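Data availability (excerpt). All sequences and predicted token strings are deposited with the supplementary files. A representative entry, Aminotransferase, is shown inline so that the format can be inspected without opening the archive.
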Amino acid sequence: MEEFHKVRRLPPYVFEQVNRLKASARAGGADIIDLGMGNPDLPTPQAIVDKLCEVVQDPRTHRYSSSKGIPGLRRAQAAYYARRFNVKLNPDTQVVATLGSKEGFANMAQAITAPGDVILCPNPTYPIHAFGFLMTGGVIRSITVEPDETFFPPLERAVKHSIPKPLALILNYPSNPTAMVATLDFYKDVIAFAKKHDIIVLSDLAYSEIYFDGNPPPSVLEVPGAMDCTVEFTSMSKTFSMPGWRMGFAVGNERLIAALTRVKSYLDYGAFTPIQVAATHALNGDGSDIAEVRSVYHRRRDVMVESFGKAGFEVPPPAATMFAWAKIPEKFRHLGSLEFSKLLVEKADVAVAPGIGFGEMGDEYVRLALVENEHRIRQAARNIKKFLSTADETMHNVISLNAHR
Ligand SMILES: Cc1ncc(COP(=O)(O)O)c(C=O)c1O
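Structure token line:
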């Protein structure tokens, strides 16, 4: 029987292959150090959990909630943008709460895309950026992820040669998986380009608060006039270590926010009210929770860069995000990222995310998530050191046979 139209557009997650190996190694007793999935391991700050527990006692909060987010929550998100980016938002028309930023992004794709619409999407990137649109019948045109002068010539070509002309451009800085960051000057050029060609800009700013070099990532909405064509998505998952709570936001252009709000009003009743109240409490906090989360990732980053480097696996220090994006050591590169990731599970008890899972341009890389503690990151480095130093003898066949292909 032929597979359903939509399901055919959703091939099995590449990461599943590594996950399956990981599960079977664990079932066999192996202690796998999991740097694969970007699933924050830190507990949500206690005051946020306490707020949830308090509010849930009130039966009035057990009813259906508000799909676009309770007013106080939308006001808190607008206040965050004012404080952090000096961007003024109308909480009634320019802010909508989403069930995590992933849901918001996917439903925005649903709201704005007609079959055959062309979307400019970085490669490699977080999978929903492409699949959100592929599910709705959109067509992806890959662009480079580097936020520098190499970014624009392919965009100009895309506008000139795509039929129909591209509908939207996706940005994601700090980038998952590459950890690249963008400057405000880059965003100014992006907005000028988008306005010139009448293209919608969708910016995924999930890592707005996870940065390490004292340099907070800007919002594209800081660019004067960006509001005319832009929506930006943020997430509480990483900022407050609340991934399971499913709370995020879309903010920006009123017409786009209204389109997303309309679609969502047909699909959901919003997050559980106690979650929305606790999220409001978190956003209105003094920022100390965020600073604590950031400093944990910072220390882990430093430990990873140092210990992996010493182990012979060079990891460039990411300036932001909870990921490092590392080139596969030379002698394994020909294997491709999936085979290399499988080898790491089988021979080094370390799980990573193969770069190919983020797009074809990622295949020479693996992504390492900072979701294990410092001690276990050092242990992963020791395992990898052993793996790399014995590979020439123990995996003679794997290395040399493939190298000669
Ligand atoms: C770039 C990016 N966007 C969105 C998300 C999803 O976040 P949320 O939990 O808010 O749906 C992630 C999660 O890893 C991410 O890396």
